[in-house]
Amino acid sequence: NPDIKASSEASRVPGTQGVHDDRSAPGLTFQPEYVISHLGVVIDTRDTANPRRGGLYQAQVRRFDDREGGAYSFTDTRIELQQFIPFWNLSRVLALRVLAQHADGLGQAQVPFYLMPTLGGARSLRGYDRQRFRDRSQLLISAEYRYEVNPFLMAAVFYDAGQVAADWSAFRIKDLRDAYGIGFRFGYSNAVALRADVAFGGEDPVRLIVGFSTSF
């Protein structure tokens, strides 16, 4: 049961309610109660939680049924592929990720803006703010070259590219946003305790990202 609250007066960003209406941000003035059905399949061959080899392949379909009239009922489809290719006795890893997602209203129904796929943040397009871009479809491609400095520290060079659009058919290579950078992962083979990334290529000259898990 989503609930859109007013923005904080102390925020440096103008409140959504003062900038948008239901045409530009569907679901802004009315949030329905949903029943959600979820169907998915996951194949996970990764060797550890901080992978050196194997892959993660998953697909899921979620249906959001608006119980208060059906104006905001939609289906969300998400496909994600990850592959980890080791070198030099597992001390170097090429990590690859592709994510595609599409939310489609049922009949004439709309997708609420707060449930649309988004890009930006620590786990997607790292050169941009969290949820910087949103639309009914998204495409994300990420690559990392990870280098083991010692058993408790890995360095990484990464590249992210992504795009949001009204539909998968509207994606254009020339419209991709991208970011790149370097990072460090502190931990061990089964977990990353601390991650620090420095990202370039976004709207800010440099972005520092600190997290407590792998980027993917």
Which secondary structure elements does this structure contain, and how are they paired or packed?
Layout: H1 16-19, E1 34-44, E2 54-66, E3 74-87, E4 92-105, E5 118-119, E6 133-134, E7 137-150, E8 153-165, E9 177-188, E10 191-200, E11 207-211
Antiparallel strand pairs: 1-2, 2-3, 3-4, 4-7, 5-6, 7-8, 8-9, 9-10, 10-11
Characterization of this structure:
By secondary structure, the chain is mainly β. 2% of the residues lie in helices and 51% in strands. The protein is built from one helix and eleven strands; from the N terminus they run H-E-E-E-E-E-E-E-E-E-E-E. The chain has one helix at 16-19; strands spanning 34-44, 54-66, 74-87, 92-105, 118-119, 133-134, 137-150, 153-165, 177-188, 191-200, 207-211. The strands form two sheets. A nine-stranded antiparallel β-sheet has the order 1-2-3-4-7-8-9-10-11, with no helix packed on it. Strand 9 and strand 10 (191-200) form a beta hairpin. The longest helix is centred in the first third of the chain and has 4 residues, at 16-19. The radius of gyration is 19 Å and the shape is globular. The model has no long low-confidence stretch (mean pLDDT 93).
Share in helix:
under 10%
- The average pLDDT is 93
**Alpha-carbon distance between the two ends:** 29 Å
Tell me the fraction of residues in β-strands, as a range: over 45%
Regions with little confidence, pLDDT below 50 for 5+ residues: none
Look at the helices and sheets and give the structural class: mainly beta
Main β-sheet description: 9 strands, antiparallel
- What order do the helices and strands follow? HEEEEEEEEEEE
What's the overall geometry?
A: globular
The Rg value, from CA coordinates, equals 19 Å
Q: What is the tally of beta strands?
A: 11
Number of helices: 1
Order of strands across the biggest sheet? 1-2-3-4-7-8-9-10-11
